[in-house]
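step 4 of 6: structure.
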Amino acid sequence: QKEVEQDPGPLSVPEGAIVSLNCTYSNSAFQYFMWYRQYSRKGPELLMYTYSSGNKEDGRFTAQVDKSSKYISLFIRDSQPSDSATYLCAMTTYSSASKIIFGSGTRLSIRP
Amino acid sequence: SAVISQKPSRDICQRGTSLTIQCQVDSQVTMMFWYRQQPGQSLTLIATANQGSEATYESGFVIDKFPISRPNLTFSTLTVSNLSPEDSSIYLCSVWTSFYEQYFGPGTRLTVT
């Protein structure tokens, strides 16, 4: 079993829809959770990070962590065609912070 | 933040040869990382390269196959040696400027024929 599981998609939604991207994980020691966005032929860029459980909002993006269920989500409101990319979840522990474990990514397409 | 450039952006190499990938950062950073990203798979950490010390390799990656240099705080190279088709992948350089703040280069797309 992989430490981090992420549905690869592809996920296609119409412009303006709310998008939900999810990851599950098995290591209860993970404390820090990140979401990266990767456009085609580019490197990943950090979108958001959260610590422990709860929600964090940044503009149209909301990251949610449920440690009891070992489940994290990224919500995108009012989705735009420019949001079309691959989204990777990532997580790590405080004691091994540089050892970031990435999900395989979900490919998202926003239809105009 | 950090801006990272990589050279080459892509290459096609023959089996048995080697490819050296360069990574340049626009600011001094202590920790640099090399990742491999295969189609449909997670980013996999190859090694951590700190200036002034030998690189630390992850399980499944060895120095003979992936020698790394880190001559200063803004530059690193990764060589992929004795290439085989299984080495076809995207190789990414990354730096860590503070906790959670990890930046990636655009990647080098390697195809081995």
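step 5 of 6: annotate
 - The two ends of chain B are 37 Å apart (CA to CA).
 - Chain B has a mean pLDDT of 93.
step 6 of 6: archive
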